[in-house]
């Protein structure tokens, strides 16, 4: 088992409980769709698994790493080396070309693999776009760079929070197709938040959040 989320709870200060003893597991290379109404806690759960925030109770493990034992530096190392995130907002760095954005995290992690970067650029159809800056790319093209950037470190786990939410249907389908192909090729497990039944149906498993619990 790659990821284990065991009875994790989260309440924001002054709010009502968002997650109540949520549990789920994910095997290496597996893909899981996470659905649920707006406000059901999907992003909250992703932020906890992505070590961007800390659970109030319960336990999260990635491989043999228990999150509860990590300090800030340990969480930063986890995000740098093993868990990658793709958001609805592409979050590319405006001053850098697509090529520099693509390799940005891999460079930071000291794991820049030129052959894998070439392969990603080719598979993502970025060949002719690498010298452009984000403002000169379409939304779908920017998201393809963001997905390539996330996969460039060959993370064990990719967390994607409505990654095609800002794209039209055609771009959304092609970006999703590429993401699924590439996680399979690199053996990366995927936890994908989506509102689309059609997308959820294409992944190995699905989980639904409602009332703070996984159904
Ligand atoms: N930083 C925060 N501080 C306080 N409350 C928050 C914070 N982040 C989220 N919430 C609240 O927690 C609940 C769950 O939010 P979350 O963003 O996890 O939902 P979601 O399922 O991702 O929704 P959506 O589909 O709209 O993205 C909401 O009621 C939200 O207002
Ligand atoms: Mg959300």
From TrEMBL:
Pfam families: ABC_tran. This is Putative ABC transport system ATP-binding protein. PANTHER family: IMPORT ATP-BINDING PROTEIN, TRANSPORTER, PUTATIVE-RELATED. Residues 3-215 form the ABC transporter domain. The lineage of its organism: Bacteria, Pseudomonadati, Pseudomonadota, Alphaproteobacteria, Rhodobacterales. It comes from Cribrihabitans marinus. Keywords: ATP-binding, Nucleotide-binding, Transport. GO terms for cellular component: plasma membrane. It comes from the Bacteria. GO terms for molecular function: ATP binding; ATP hydrolysis activity; transmembrane transporter activity.
């Amino acid at each position: 088992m790659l990821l284990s989320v065991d009875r994790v709870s989260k309440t924001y200060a002054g709010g009502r409980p968002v997650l109540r003893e949520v549990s789920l597991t994910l095997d290496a290379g597996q893909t899981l769709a996470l659905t649920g109404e707006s406000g059901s806690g999907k992003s909250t759960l992703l932020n906890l698994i992505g070590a961007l925030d800390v659970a109030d109770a319960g336990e999260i493990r990635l491989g043999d790493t228990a999150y509860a034992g990590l300090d800030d530096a340990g969480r930063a190392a986890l995000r740098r080396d093993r868990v990658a995130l793709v958001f609805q907002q592409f979050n590319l760095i405006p001053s850098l070309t697509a090529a520099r954005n693509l390799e940005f995290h891999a460079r930071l992690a000291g794991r820049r693999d030129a052959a894998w970067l070439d392969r990603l650029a080719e598979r993502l159809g970025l060949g002719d776009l690498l010298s452009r800056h984000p403002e000169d790319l379409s939304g779908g093209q920017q998201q393809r760079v963001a997905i390539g950037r996330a996969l460039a470190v060959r993370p064990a786990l990719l967390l994607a929070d409505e990654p095609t939410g800002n794209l039209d249907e055609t771009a959304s389908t092609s970006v999703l197709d590429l993401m699924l192909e590439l996680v399979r090729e690199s053996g990366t497990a995927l936890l994908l938040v989506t509102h689309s039944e059609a997308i959820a149906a294409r992944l190995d498993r699905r989980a639904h959040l409602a009332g703070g619990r996984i159904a």
